[in-house]
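Students often ask why we bother encoding 3D structure as a string. The short answer is that it lets us treat folding as translation between two languages. Here is a chain of 443 residues written in the first language.
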Amino acid sequence: MQLKDFAHKHLRLSLTLTLGLLAFGIANSSQAQTQILDKVIAVVNEGVVLQSEFEERKASIVQRLQGQYGQLPPMEVLEKQIFDTLILEQLQLEEAKRYGMEVSDQQINATLQQVVTSNGLNSMDELAASLAQDGLSIASLRHRISRDILLNQVQQGVVNSRIRVTEQEIDNFLESSDGKFATSPDYNLGHILVGASSSAETDELQQAQQKVDDLYQQLQDGADFNQLAIAHSDDTTALEGGNLGWRKLAQLPELFAEAVSQLNVGEVSEPLRSGAGFHLLKIIDQRGGGEQLVEQTKARHILLKTSEIMDDETAREKLLEIKQQIIDGADFADMAREHSEDIGSMLEGGDLGWSSPGMFVPAFESAMAKTAIEEITEPFKSQYGWHILQVEDRRQEDMSGVVIRNKAAQMLREKRFEQELKVWQIELREGAYLDIKNKDFED
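And here it is in the second language, the structure alphabet:
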């Protein structure tokens, strides 16, 4: 199904160039004031690469490399790499357009806020002032962010759809030591140590034993673990409230691992004796393992894509008409077969089956979450077009086994992603029409 093929999963947004605008600046004030006579330096299928794009990217990369390494590769080598990158980006942006992908203002605004936070700024006004020092604007940064997000969307969507992970591969991975470690639960642990060496006198050991027993009883009576750790723990984590952070059982001493495996979230172990003294462990939180109930939704939808003959308003009005026909008695499935442009679900009457959170793009997930059973949404827009959807049912499902297998499959995909990305990019380049106007960049 098309929406699932291009689901908004594990988005790996690279802000290297975007953050580089602030860290090193695209140009100093004198460069920013230089007027570049723009011209086309390459025709790429139906698009172009402009001299201004090339110069802007070159200035950004030169200053970033100088700031990081203090030296540059030969300029002709650097320029050729930048030119090739711009060609490849243009090809990928054309693919995004072909698939109807778009970037919402909400996505851009969220990333802008990330830029503000990452650079230690307090507001968008401070960001604008910082950009203005280099002759830039929020508008130019928004354009760059939109471009970066779109590149990531098309890479994630297309490349992941090319990667096939078999059930046997998942089984093999889960049986391997790497797979068992990677898919095992993570525990956020608290720790209190009452120090007492193995060579301590009997009285000292008894005092330590009495102290840890008292602390354990206080915790059973509802005392705050962090406060007791700060006040009484002899471990180096005392000032952090005894927090050990996230650990897997395989990363813990055997004594700790055995105790933690017997605890539920929020529980504290009975005192444990080691050569260092007496220990209390608490599971603050847990990721993975045990029963994992997930609310699944059964839904169906109708998708209309925008085009030169169907703009946003036309698509919205047509979906409103379809919705009214369904309310008046038309069968949703029949209307989906007749009108929907989602090939994957159209023949099934728009049926999407049972879905778990994270399977669809954010706009679709949001609309589905807000919709009551049997209700049909108002028309809404996603990066694929305009939709109406109907929620048919909801259920709680134990997905622990599925979650583990999905996690394993995702890890296997991630291992193959970069290689498959390169293959796809090579195919794009080989199949493209290129007219290079600058002879210095010809192969």
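Translate back mentally: The CA atoms of residues 199 and 417 lie 55 Å apart. Keep this in mind for the problem set.
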